[in-house]
Amino acid sequence: MKKDFWLERWEREEIGFHQNEVNPHLCEIWPELNLARGSSVFVPLCGKSEDMLWLREQGLQVLGVELSAIAVQAFFKENGYIPQHISDGKFDRCEADSIRILCGDFFDLSRDDMAKVSAVYDRASLIALPPEMRVRYVRHLVSILPPAIQILLITVDYPQPEMQGPPFSVSSGEVEALYRDYAEVRLLTQIEVLAKNPRFQQRGLSRLRESIFQLTLR
């Protein structure tokens, strides 16, 4: 999946993956991570997610990375921010009210970029990637994070032949296979959600399950 795919989706406003409300699983489960106020949370492929505002309201620093400048600009504008803009190597950095978004390619991130991160929130990153990219994504993510980081990961699982992603189906078994060499993988809960998602019913899905994981890097 090439970068142009996502850039064009934002240009055409084909952003059905964007949630207009804070993810309820985030509100319910995030406190279990027991992060101290002021800690830094990394949100990969963040788009213009409302979840970043909720994390900021918990007294946390938020660091996102997003390929599309349209998405980054929309996040700050729609939430009434006038961010500072700084060219930062391979990224354009936009920052306001303890929310910093690096506009650029996730795979260009380095250990220096992640040095102060204490946790990761991945709701729409792993499931945005086709199978051939997910191994590369996980390897890069764990290679740049500090040790003992916690990751709150939300995936969706459905019969992949019934719908062309994204979002792609990622089973609990695949999550275990992707992360077992790097982290303790704990499945917190699985919820059947097709009845609450008419958009996916219209696309022909017979089943849709959300799974929430807590990962702790070694």
Q: What keywords describe this structure?
A:
218 residues; alpha/beta; nine-stranded mixed sheet; 27% strand
Structure write-up:
This protein is α/β, with parallel strands linked by helices and 218 residues long. It is 27% helix and 27% strand. It has a nine-stranded mixed β-sheet with strand order 3-4-5-2-1-6-7-9-8, sandwiched between helices. Strand 4 and strand 5 form a beta hairpin. The longest helix is centred in the middle third of the chain and has 14 residues.
What's the helix and strand layout?
Elements: H1 3-11, H2 24-29, E1 40-43, H3 51-57, E2 61-66, H4 69-78, E3 84-88, E4 91-96, E5 99-103, E6 117-122, H5 131-144, E7 150-157, H6 172-179, E8 183-192, H7 198-202, E9 209-217
Parallel strand pairs: 1-2, 1-6, 2-5, 6-7
Antiparallel strand pairs: 3-4, 4-5, 7-9, 8-9
Distance between termini?
A: 30 Å
Summed over residues and divided by their number, the pLDDT gives a mean of 93
Q: What strand order characterises the main sheet?
A: 3-4-5-2-1-6-7-9-8
Enumerate the spans where pLDDT stays under 50 for 5 or more consecutive residues. Answer: none
As a percent range, the share of helical residues equals 25-40%
Tertiary shape: globular
Radius of gyration, CA atoms, in whole angstroms = 17 Å
What is the total tally of β strands?
Answer: 9
The main sheet comes to: 9 strands, mixed
User: What is the helix/strand order?
Assistant: HHEHEHEEEEHEHEHE
Task: Bin the strand percentage.
Answer: 25-35%
How many separate helices? 7
Helix/sheet category: alpha/beta
